[in-house]
Amino acid sequence: MSGRIDNTEEFVMLELEGMESKCLGQATEVVHKFEDKFHNLTVDLNFIEKIQRFLINTQVKMKLEVTKSNYQAESLSSYLEQFQKKIDACAKPRVDKETVTPDELYSFTQMIMEEFKKRSTYLDCLLDLPSASSVPEIPLQGPFAAATRSERQESKVGSQSCDSLLQPSRMGKPATEDAALGVIHSILQTQKSKVYLELEKAPEASGVQLSSPHSPSTTVLGDKKSHTSSINLKTDILLRKASSAGVKRFSKPTRFDKRFQVFGSKPEEEQLHFKGIVWGILWESNDALLLVAEEFYKKKEKRTITRPEYIQETFENSAEMLNQKLLSYHSQAEEYHNVCLQDFREQLKQFEQQLYHVPPLLIAELTKKHLDQLAETTAQIHHSLHERLQESINRQTEHWDSLRPTLGHPGNLNQLESLCNLEQERLTEHLTAIDISKKNLQDCVIKHGEDFVTALASLTENMLLKLDDFLTVDDIQTGTVEVTKAKTTTLIRRKKAGLPLEDRVYIPLTQRGSRTWPGILYYESRAKINDEKLTRETASIKTAKTTLGHVSAMEARDSAYQKYQREYEKELARTEEEPEAQRISATHQETRWKESVLKIKQLYS
Predict the structure, then answer these.
(1) What does pTM read for this prediction?
(2) SS3 labels along 386-431
(3) Is the separation of the CB atoms in 454 and 103 below 8 Å?
(4) Which residues make Cβ contacts (< 8 Å) with residue 406, sequence separation at least 6?
(5) Measured between alpha carbons, how far is 500 from 334 in angstroms, rounded to an integer?
(6) What is the pLDDT of residues 92-140, one digit of tens each?
(7) Which residues of 340-370 are buried (b: 16+ CB within 10 A; e: fewer)?
(8) CB of 175 within 8 A of CB of 312?
(9) Closest by alpha carbon to 424, among 582, 590, 596, 585?
């Protein structure tokens, strides 16, 4: 009985040991499975985090450029507001306004022009100055690029929220159901058919080539060796074509495949404009993402993906999804650039309208300066003449006081004669001073007139040539403008009124194009014009553009010319009238003197 108990106990112990080893093996197997699964989960999670980090980094870089662009646009808007205030302060100065001179206004205008040039360079939107380092026109390559272009043509223009860049994948729709994948499969299917057609046509093509009259294998038709070699050559060519086609068909895709390089080759130079910078950011991101994906799928081998909702099964699918994501970023950047372009065009319009008020202020300042100089110089000549004439009048008064009736006595005739000579000498000097003053006044007026015309023509020419460097809306790309549909009745009313049928049809602010502006005549006296029958004129000015600033400058020039001409003619008439009146007065004094001398002489006759 005890032996049976011992046997039973031994059997139970053996069973328990076997069960223990079996459970330990099962537990070890489960642990290994969990370790492998945990390792795979960790690897997949690291891959997801890397992709997410690269995408977020790309978004941050693009938003940095957007912030820079917005800052430029806001700075221009601020400058335009300041410009309007400065124009108002210069045209209508008051105590409560900022003191602004026309020269300061002109300097501020040039500064704004430079800022507009910088903005146009950053947006790369000039029509007549294509950038040598601009983004290539064929950057979008591969099937996703074709899909992006077709979608862009159908989409409406509108700024999308930058928050969409923060989405790592398309929400609410799995990548396997994307329409672009259908395009890819159709293209791959087309490539397959092309390979099979090449394999079918290879024997015929090789046979024709080898049967050419110039082929060395057909030079001796009866040679057995040549016939054998030709057969071997045909076989070799067929095998090569089949093997090359097989390589093309069954080779694994790599990140260097052209269909994945949707942003073209690496930019050779650093881009300075918005689209070029964004293009470089997307190229670098695409290159880095493809490298990370390629390394991940090389190590993955044949294991299954632990997160199929976030990770594609193959490198090819993952690369296509990343390309699609980056191309969506590029599409948003293009739409944002178009919005910036439309805002920039509006700012240029506003600046051109404000610039219309600047040339009149500059020319008015020049006119005032020359009129003040003319008035000051003529006043000095009049003052000098007045002093000389006053001295002459004082001497005349002394002579009148010396002219007494006793000088008519025959014994005082010598004194009377001496006094008359002194009076005659004074009168001569008096008339000479009047003539000299008249000549000086005429020369002064003519000289100042010539100086003013020269200065006016020079200032106008400088402004016109400077305005040629001013960017207008016509120098900027139009971009894509959303056309709003209007009702038929509205269109009929616009047509009858002669208005454009579309709301956003661009109408130039003035007639554009190059133009030759006529010069202005120098001021000449009518007598001189009649005698010489010749008039002098400043040179005409040819400009490459016609803007509101050009028109304003010419209108202000003509107005200032006429204003100064009125003062010029008024001063010339004054130089004739005043000396004539002074000579008449001197003649009357001479007549009175002679009459008085004659009466004195008659007292003793």
Answers:
(1) 0.67
(2) HHHHHHHHHHHHHHHHHCCHHHHCHHHHHHHHHHHHHHHHHHHHHH
(3) no
(4) 412
(5) 28
(6) 888 888 888 999 999 999 999 999 999 999 998 888 644 333 444 434 4
(7) bbbbbbebbebbbebbbbbbbbbbbbbbeeb
(8) yes
(9) 590
3-state helix, strand, coil in the chain (%, to 5): 75, 0, 25
Q: What is the pLDDT of residues 150-192, one digit of tens each?
A: 444 444 333 333 344 333 344 344 444 444 445 445 554 544 4
Residue with tokens 């790369």: 124
To 5 degrees, how large is the angle CA 520–CA 523–CA 524?
Answer: 130
Encoding tokens for residue 147? 């899909």
Q: How far apart are CA 566 and CA 197, in angstroms?
A: 92
The C-alpha atoms of residue 186 and residue 205 are separated, in whole angstroms, by: 28
Token duo for residue 342: 């439309």
Planar angle of CA 331, 315, 239, nearest 5 degrees: 115
Tokens of 594: 């002679």
Strands (E), 510-590: 515-517, 541-543
Determine if residue 142 is left, alpha or beta; phi over 0 gives left, psi from -120 to 50 gives alpha, anything else beta.
Answer: left
Full DSSP string of 53-107: HHHHHHHHHHHHHHHHHHHHHHHHHHHHHHHHHHHHHHHS--TTS----HHHHHH
What gap in Å lies between CA 104 and CA 418, rounded to an integer? 66
Contacts with 88 (C-beta within 8 Å, 6 or more apart), sequence order: 97
Alpha-carbon span 386 to 240, nearest angstrom: 115
Is residue 524 classed as helix, strand or coil in its secondary structure? coil
The C-alpha R_g of the chain, in whole angstroms, comes to 49
Distances (CA, A) of 555 to 349, 361, 363, 364, 564: 20, 12, 10, 12, 14
Q: What are phi and psi of 541, to 5 degrees?
A: -125, 130
What's the CA gap between 53 and 67, in Å, rounded? 21
Residue 192, helix vs strand vs coil: helix
Alpha-carbon span 232 to 219, nearest angstrom: 17
